[in-house]
Amino acid sequence: MRRRGTAWLVLVAALLATGCGTPRSGALGPAPTVPPATPAPTGSPSTPAPTGRPDPTPAPSAPPTPTAHPPAPASTDPRRSDTVTIELWYVRSGRLVPTRRIRPATVATSRLALTELAAGPTATEAATGLATLLPAGVEVTRITDGVATLAPLASADETAQRRRLREAQVVWTLTQFPTVRQVRFGSGTPVGRDDYADLLPPIVVTGPSVGDRVGTPLTVTGTAEVFEATVSVRVLDSAGREVATGFGTASCGSGCRGGYRVVVGWRTAREQRGTVEVYEVSARDGARINTVAVPVILSPAAGG
Fold first, then answer.
1. Which of 281, 213, 227 is nearest to 258 (CA)?
2. What digits encode the pLDDT tens for the residues 188-216?
3. Where is the composition biased (Pro residues) (predicted)?
């Protein structure tokens, strides 16, 4: 009897030790879950969800159907563009005036720029008074340390002012490229844009250019040296009616030149010829002065 009671006590003690002893921990892994069903390819019947029990002989998965991708558009990367935009500086009324050309890309950008500069303005540009003083055949002989060297442009039968204007055309055209900071004519001292800054008109319009087809809203850009740095813009339709106005402030005002950017919009029912006028309002009588008129093609606004 005593032996049976002792065994009973030993059994109870073992049970108590199991329930109240020091807890143990261990990594048992994640609880088993049913994996989500893989979306079936378009046009195929849906695959039933797994039951949670492994299939001893799973069927091989069908290879995915290749997706047809449209070809990438050409020249999406500016570094791979097949065209180049060149700024050309022509002459009007003894001042420098810029315009643009879009041409096939080339590594010889300085040669292309001088060729286009010598070719002269288009008929539309010439109608606004633009002209070139650069003869054909002028080329850069070398570019070293940011200095482009050309043969002298002097001519025996021209004035110093005309020669200076011609040099200014070349300097302002070539220094648009990052490889050219200055230009040397013959064995002379290298010169840069600052040496010809006095040949700029009070208001320069770099965009849009003469003959551009423009849409709304239109961003008008350029540089100006005007009273209180205020630049005004208006857009005229083919009948000369004012269809948009705006104004902006250049980054520098009277006594210094600064850049400006003015955005204007309009509503027209059809595409038509128009004019973008950029001007200064006279502090004396409020009249429009130093006006630059840029003939353009006005595209109608959406829903206009």
1. 227
2. 999 999 999 999 999 999 999 999 999 99
3. 47-73
